[in-house]
Amino acid sequence: MMLVESLRAIRRAQRGERTSFKKSGQHSWVHGLPLKIRFRSSKLYISAIQPLLIGMMVGVLAAIMGVGGGFIMVPAMIYVLRMPTNVVVGTSLFQIIFVAGLVTILHATENQTVDFVLAMLLLASGVVGAQFGAQAGRRLKAEQLRALLGIMVLGVALRLAVDLLIQPAELYSLTSMVTTSK
Fold first, then answer.
1. How far apart are CA 31 and CA 45, in angstroms?
2. Are 81 and 51 in contact (CB under 8 A)?
3. Of 19, 125, 148, 182, which is least surrounded by CB within 10 A?
4. How far is residue 30's CA from residue 104's CA, in Å, rounded to a whole number?
5. d(CA 166, CA 124)
6. pLDDT tens for each residue of 130-144
7. CB contact burial 144-172 (16+ within 10 A = b; e otherwise)
């Protein structure tokens, strides 16, 4: 749905029409929630309940599944909170630093399930990749960023579907993790 919406927005932009999906004067029950706060960078005036619930959901996903939450957080901020896409990227990255940091510490101390050498290699290459991504993000329009995210989410979903439908080469395979020396 994100991909379809962003492709429509790209077509509207090419025709010179309005590309924002915000419609002024349109309100739902969400606008009646209490604890309203003005978020200046996002140009939002919404209830604090919405971002709290989205953040809690992302935190649970990060702790249980080891995902950063971006595939939930970014669409939720764009379509539920109606934040501008360019502000969503930075906000998502900033908040995930703390969520991922805490979850990493918990996994490292409680479960001993962190491969530090592999993590450092991924971290180093991730920092380099982030530089290229930041430059690309500055050049792309909001609807192009949404289309890219939609394509990535569809690619992951397709990969999961293929893994579920195609029979593996070995259905039952038991291997010993301990090697014996002779």
1. 9
2. yes
3. 182
4. 34
5. 34
6. 888 888 878 888 788
7. bbbbbbbeebeeeeeeeeeeeeeeeeeee
Tell me how far apart the alpha carbons of residues 141 and 161 are, in angstroms, rounded to a whole number: 30
Give the pLDDT of residue 30: 65
pLDDT, mean over the chain: 78
Tokens of 181: 């020396």
Q: Are 119 and 78 in contact (CB under 8 A)?
A: no
With cut-offs at 50, 70 and 90, classify the pLDDT of residue 156: confident
Strand ranges (E), the chain: 36-39, 44-47
Question: What gap in Å lies between CA 74 and CA 93, rounded to an integer?
Answer: 10
Alpha helices, DSSP H only, in 79-115? Answer: 85-106
pLDDT digits (tens, 9 = 90+) for 48-60: 888 888 888 877 8
Q: What percent of the chain has pLDDT over 90?
A: 1
Looking at residue 64, its amino acid is I
Judging by beta carbons within 10 Å of its beta carbon (0-12, 13-18, 19+), is residue 94 exposed, middle or buried? exposed
Q: Is the pLDDT of residue 121 over 80?
A: yes
